[in-house]
Amino acid sequence: MTPDLLKTETFDLVVIGAGSAGLAAASAAADAGVERILILEKEDFPGGILLQCVHNGFGLHRYEQELTGPEYAERALSELRRKRIDLRCGAMVLSITPDKEVRYSGEKYGYRAARAKSVVCATGADERTRGAIRIPGDRPAGVMTAGLAQHYMNLDGYTVGRRVFILGSGDIGLIMARRVTLEGGKVLGVAELMPYSNGLARNIAQCLNDFDIPLYLSHTVREIRGKKRLEQIVLSQVDENFAFVPGTDKTFDVDTLLLSVGLIPSNRLLTELGVRLHPKTGGPVVDETLQTSIPGIFSCGNSLHVHDLADFVSMEGENAGRCAALYIQEKLGAESGDSPVVRTEPGAGIGYLLPSVLHAERAEEFLLKFRVRKPYRDVALLLKLNGRLMKKIKKPYLLPAEMENLRLKKEELPEPSGTLTLEVADE
Ligand SMILES: Cc1cc2nc3c(=O)[nH]c(=O)nc-3n(C[C@H](O)[C@H](O)[C@H](O)COP(=O)(O)OP(=O)(O)OC[C@H]3O[C@@H](n4cnc5c(N)ncnc54)[C@H](O)[C@@H]3O)c2cc1C
Known about the structure:
Blueprint: E1 7-16, H1 20-31, E2 37-41, E3 56-58, E4 67-68, H2 69-81, E5 86-89, E6 92-96, E7 101-106, E8 110-121, E9 125-127, H3 130-133, E10 143-145, H4 146-156, E11 163-167, H5 171-182, E12 186-192, H6 201-208, E13 215-217, E14 219-225, E15 232-237, E16 250-253, E17 256-259, E18 263-265, H7 268-273, E19 297-299, H8 310-328, E20 342-346, E21 350-354, E22 357-358, E23 365-372, E24 376-385, E25 388-398, E26 404-409, E27 418-426
Parallel strand pairs: 1-2, 1-8, 2-5, 8-19, 10-17, 11-12, 11-17, 12-13, 20-27
Antiparallel strand pairs: 3-4, 6-7, 7-8, 9-18, 14-15, 15-16, 20-22, 21-23, 23-26, 24-25, 24-27
Helix pairs in contact: 1-2, 1-8, 4-5, 5-6
The structure holds flavin-adenine dinucleotide (FAD).
Flavin-adenine dinucleotide binds next to helix 1, strand 2, strand 3, strand 6 and helix 4.
């Protein structure tokens, strides 16, 4: 179809993705006075990953209640239904043009375009697969990502296996260990490459310890065996350089291996548009308004950086929606490049630090988000501007599995430009 024949509609804001982030962004933009809002969601129902998370543990921060994923999604949707927002499901976004034309297709819509003043990209994250971690061996059925297994079990009603091993102790892996057990499967163990778990402490207690499922730290799967269906895995201990320790091989007879080896922000649309990506997070580079390197294009949720809690995703989505509203109303202030900026950089012990750019003249307060590289106890966080110490914060513990927030007031910044670093140091 030539662009001239393309059915094109005009909106103020187009939000891509109807997960926690996208729903919150659209809702907050409507509250801030944006009138013509369109949400495009490729699946047939809104809610994103929440729909397959039938366990509880959602909403404690946002609603002060413990909800399941679908209940949390319903809360967000009921807020949305009270507002005039056009939500289109079964609408897969294929591309965004530099002048903010969002092209999408779907059975109900054909191939269409939505022209917008601003776009919020909230496309979630993808799971890392066997190919990404290169486990040698056969290629039988029965090896799949933990999130896919969760979808099969919780949304499609299939059992994924009877004797299951899980590689990776991230939250999805831990939650699936419990889920498989509750459905009558036997989970022989969870292995983790690192000497510590990558999941939340509450999930280790509630999903492994309560069911006597062993956790093998500093272990990985070194071989997969099986002709048609998985028959065996070989597990080995690794040393501090992740090399196999000779003589530590253990063989497990299993029919299923679930991989919970990380999520990667899903940003194909922004990459093709030429948005600058962050080298550590896999999401785009953003400033304190969550605006990317292309003015008017905002990012939030797991497509910006991988979150552990949906509540924080929703709060970030609201921020993106409010800032997109200010952009549409031409109240956001100077665009990147026009005013002095502070650039942030992770220092010793910090995995990543967001946002990458702060406009000291534009905001009264900044919310910094970061993760540490490894677990720490009784340490201090040092915030430095251009090498000079600005702030020291004592921390009883820091864990890579838990995203940390740090609020910084404008008046705490001694200068409006330079490099802000955050590092972990002895107390
Ligand atoms: C297994 C698991 C367990 C979890 N447990 C908890 C918990 O106990 N408590 C808690 O608080 N949090 C939990 N979380 C975290 C939380 O649920 C997520 O971080 C959050 O919901 C992610 O929201 P999101 O909107 O960024 O992404 P998603 O929910 O992934 O939403 C992204 C949406 O974008 C859509 N999309 C993507 N590309 C396109 C496109 N091209 N066109 C149109 N639509 C598109 C997708 O279909 C999807 O609906 C869990 C997460 C997982 C995976």
